[in-house]
Amino acid sequence: VTGQLAVLAFGFGIVSAATIALGAVGFTLQYGISGVFNVSYGAMMIVAAYAAYLVHNTAGGNLWLGVAAAGAAGGCLALASERLLFSPFFRRRANAFTVVMVSLALGIFAENVIVVIGGPGFFSYQLPPGRVYDVAGTKWTTLQVALVAIAAVAMLAVHLLLRRTKLGKAMRATAADPELASSCGINVRRTTSITWTVSGLLLGLSGVALAINAAAFSPVSGDLFVFIVFAAAVVGGLGQPYGAMLGALIIGVTTEEMAVWSPGLKYVAAFALLVVMLLVRPGGLVQLGGRARKDAAQA
Amino acid sequence: VSRKRVEQGGRRRAMYAVLFLSVLSLVAAAAAGASPRASTLNVAVFEPFAGPLAAFGPNNLAGCMAGAKAIDDAGGVLGHQMACQAENSTGDPADAVPAANKMLTSVSNLVAIIGPGGETPATFPLIAAAKIVDFSLSGSDEYDKNTSPWFFRMVPADGFDGIAMAYWAAKHGYKHAASVFTNDASSQTIPGPLAAAYKGFGGHLVKSVTLAPGQNSYRTEASQLLAAHPDAVFTETDPQTAATFWSEMLQIGGRLPPILGPQAGAYHPYLSALLPAVGHQINYVILSPTTPSPSEGLVVYKRDILSASSKVKKPAQYDNDPFAISDYDAVTIVGLAMTEAKSTDPSTYRAYITKVAQPASAGTVVVHTYAQGIAALKAGKKIRYTGAGGPIVLNKYHNVAQPYAAHKLNPKTGKLTQIGAIPQAVFAKVGG
User: Fold this and answer.
1) Predicted-complex ipTM score
2) Long-range contacts of range B249-255, CB-CB < 8 Å, 24 or more positions apart?
3) What is the mean pLDDT of chain A?
4) Which of A235, B49, B394, B422 could disulfide-link to A247, CB 3.0 to 4.6 Å?
């Protein structure tokens, strides 16, 4: 029975990883380009999920409209927070702790805005799970397949953006060395804002994926989940989108496998992994290599 | 010359500002002095109003406000109006201590407190030291044999919940049940008494799953539970965990086994998270000592709960909630005890609380509302209060001691219907 459960848990881990990856890649893009450890990220995910909830309810239960609304809301929120809130602190060269505190305040503000508008209770999209598919000992519902598909498409889009477009090259160059990128003619400010918008889009998708996955969400549902997102980003290597994808996969599968043996220690396993990674390989699984720096030079 | 004029103008402006502020202060002071709230008796609802448990505060505030409205409509208590104040207990014992200190120093004419729940061990010593009556919402077993004169508990003890669930399952042929509880302190006081009682009733616990609360998925844990093929499941978790766990179990298994939960499972925030998540496909029985019956007390409660709309969003959603109902009854009991004691001083009226909340006996009059109680007391009669939540019996430990009832949840309406009772003898037999 334990063997069967372990196989099942692997499949469930993929679904969890999909949700985590959307958030972790978005978070790491923000960190990579601006160096901001944005702790309001979880609250922003929930704001986007709430926007999807409002659109989903008013649009007669159309999930895809809700997903689009979450992405749009996430993108707008991230752009607005970067331009209006964080940029003034960047310009004053505020220290990292100050910026973290600002993001903490933003997160608390965002959560309370939802409480004021929607109340402190719970919200649910009330989606039917659809059929259950048995695949090689794992079980997937239609909804879970959709979640994994959304994450896979988003990851592919991020890959193509980073590797096949000028903008992606500029993003990588700015993340690697903003001063060098600027001296090479890259509009760093514009690139930073676009990166925040892209990360916001992913944040929105992650929020709606979390809300679908958890079946119900409240204004504070992102508070714990965001630490799993952080763990995935750090395990993969902060600022490294591919690292965040890998980190999400490892964290997602590890937590579900841990649930087979000791459900109460699921998240403990994730953070134990994080500590081990920081001890053994402080830069994460995927570290900033020569290629990123070369991009900056080439640009 | 121009500099002198500027200086003179500045001085004049400063003088006007000082005058304006002085007048404003005088007006404010006069307004405060003339306020009818000076003689208002305050009941603090010390529950979370922010953070992860923020939905619980308004739930309890609604019940309190309905009780205060009923009292005020009947002329108040000894000439005083009654009001409920929302005080955020935060949900975290560490943060609740400064919050309790703030409440005790800032709420004037504080005569009673409703709440908190899990924060009680941290905050009750402060409340007792301040000599305020506390209707705690904690189910912790450390208060089962309470000796403090300031502590009262109208919600069931966790151990009793466990015995009630075990009895009901065994009685209905569920002899191979499983249990799902979260690993937080407030949920972990049920599994022990539950397991012992269930074994005593001839049941066999086929699987016990302990969840870490607030995670984004419990599919593996749900699969474990399904693999044990339980014929019923005992549970108590937080609302978010319940929604995620049961919806995923439904996805994997196609249907849910019968679920048995304690009174906490009838909290409105819990049901508002759970029911939409499971698409109303749930067979859920709740065991609770609060037994709302179609009495005059319940009719008045349902009418008065709507009056809480100025401070509580959609108060009508709590018209079926056992916690809001027991808060309503607690406030009514406070009012009746004060009237009987002829004092609003907690040190005096607290002794009358258990006199009002006793089974009816010869020479006593059963009253269902505050107005009825006042009329009976004025006529020189001894009263026994049977409130919106049915008969209320507080034992020598100031704990509820009335029989439990089983309530079936209608998943489409969220309403509870009483389907049976558990006699008090069951608890005595098991040692509860």
Assistant:
1) 0.88
2) B249/B218, B249/B222, B249/B225, B250/A129, B250/B278, B250/B279, B250/B281, B251/A129, B251/A132, B251/A141, B251/A143, B251/B219, B252/A132, B252/A139, B252/B219, B252/B222, B252/B223, B252/B226, B253/B222, B253/B226, B254/A132, B255/B281
3) 90
4) A235
